[in-house]
Amino acid sequence: MTGAILLALLPVILLIALGYWLRRRAFLQQAFWPQAERLGYFVLLPSLFLHGLATARLQDLPVWSLVGVLVSATLVVAALVVAARPLMRIDGPAFTSVFQGGIRFNNYVGVTVAAGLFGAQGIALAAICNAAIVPTVNILCVLVFARFGSARLSARGIVRQILTNPLVLACAIGIALQATGLGLPSGLEPAIRALGAASLPLGLLCVGAALDFGTARSWLGPVVTSSAVKFLLMPAATLLAASALGLSGPALLTALLFQAMPTASSAYILARQLGGDAPLMAGITATQTVLATAAIPLVLAVLMAVSGL
After folding, report:
1. Which residues cross the membrane (predicted)?
2. Which residues, other chains included, contact 91 with Cβ-Cβ below 8 Å and sequence gap of 6+?
């Protein structure tokens, strides 16, 4: 398992490093990066989520137990992070980065590792995880950005932002296509799949391009806080929820795996779009990705021993 996780994380680290190098060498014009972020947020990431949810095979899997575990754990951890906000000596936009760093997950790595561990069953379990967590996390993040981000939103603006969020819409459409059995039309499916596949390298290059190690010292507190939530609190809450709802076996391990994933490149894109602290978000994303090479195997080994897996 450790080898599969490390192999899945290595290309993520390399792509972030390449984005950093390209930006610092001015290989591309500075105007390229904001447009690349916009393309990823509005087109590529939604394509990935829509395709994954619409084409997943969910037969004979504990769908509702897995969904219940993931959603309840995410809501509890999100509430705890917001409650701890007064204890953090950071401004509102920086808090949105800590919040995203604590509850978002890198679904690309999660799918890769789940497939390596459980094959076709792992891919189906990963699709359920995406269906459960992606809409939940995106709605929570929009609410937090509305309250703490630099671009404050009215109540109507919050509703509009949630209903028009491309990631939430993509998940809703994918779930609807899955539930109705319609799936994606044969002529459209390859195009949606290709667009989704492009979201990983472009998103990670943008994360690397935004890194500024000149302000690294100011990241220490937020990075430690978000990483503690991500690698300790979130998996522990997931294990407790699984115990309460009777989730076990490969489904439990997949849930723990996804909840222990480092935060995703989409967190940086969302921070840029909704008034968060984007440079801090890029630092948290990059740091968590590096930490994950040691944290994920260690956390999963401890939790597996505790749960008897």
Report:
1. 6-23, 39-58, 64-84, 105-126, 132-150, 162-184, 190-211, 283-306
2. 277
Amino acid present at 175: I
Higher-pLDDT residue of 216 and 12 is 12
% of the chain exceeding 90 in pLDDT? 28
User: What is the residue range of 245's domain?
Assistant: 2-307
Global confidence as pTM: 0.81
Tokens of 19: 């984005």
pLDDT at 266 exceeding the cut of 80: no
CA angle 1, 135, 123 (to 5 degrees): 30
User: What are 291's two structure tokens?
Assistant: 């930490």
CA distance to 16, 38, 174, 246, 306, per residue, from 249 (Å): 34, 39, 26, 10, 13
287: helix, coil or strand? helix
Domain of 78, CATH number, reads 1.20.1530.20
* Token pair in block for residue 176: 């609807």
Q: What is the pLDDT of residue 2?
A: 61
CA distance 5 to 221: 27
Give the DSSP H or E segment for 48: helix 45-54
- Give the DSSP per-residue string, 177-210: HHHHT----TTTHHHHHHHHHHHHHHHHHHHHHH
pLDDT at 114: 80
Q: Which amino acid is at 219?
A: W
Once rounded to an integer, what is the mean pLDDT over residues 277-282?
86
Longest dimension (CA), the chain: 53
Spatial separation of the C-alpha atoms in residues 301 and 218, rounded to whole Å: 32
What is the tens place of the pLDDT at every residue in 43-62?
998 888 888 888 877 777 88
